[in-house]
Amino acid sequence: MGKAKEAAVVAGALAFAWLAIELALKPFLAKARASIDNSDPPRDPDDDALPKTTTDDVPDAADSKPAGDVPPAADTITTDAV
Predict the structure, then answer these.
(1) Model confidence pTM above 0.85
(2) How confident is the model at residue 61 (pLDDT cuts 50, 70, 90)?
(3) What would be one Gene Ontology cellular-component term for the protein (predicted)?
(4) Which helix (H) or strand (E) holds 37?
């Protein structure tokens, strides 16, 4: 019987603490909940910080070097067959 009474007291204390926090922080929680309700889930705010790419930013294929001017990779292993 003591365990049930102890559990009821703990549950009551947790409910009281939750209610006290809700009342103390009501203005802040209301603003936070309103901003969550007004948010746009498909929009990523991190994308706003990135510069927008335009067609002027993309290099033209005619401006690039031909494939023959590409130096060999530094880690290429060459062996001479004798």
Answers:
(1) no
(2) low
(3) chloroplast outer membrane
(4) helix 26-37
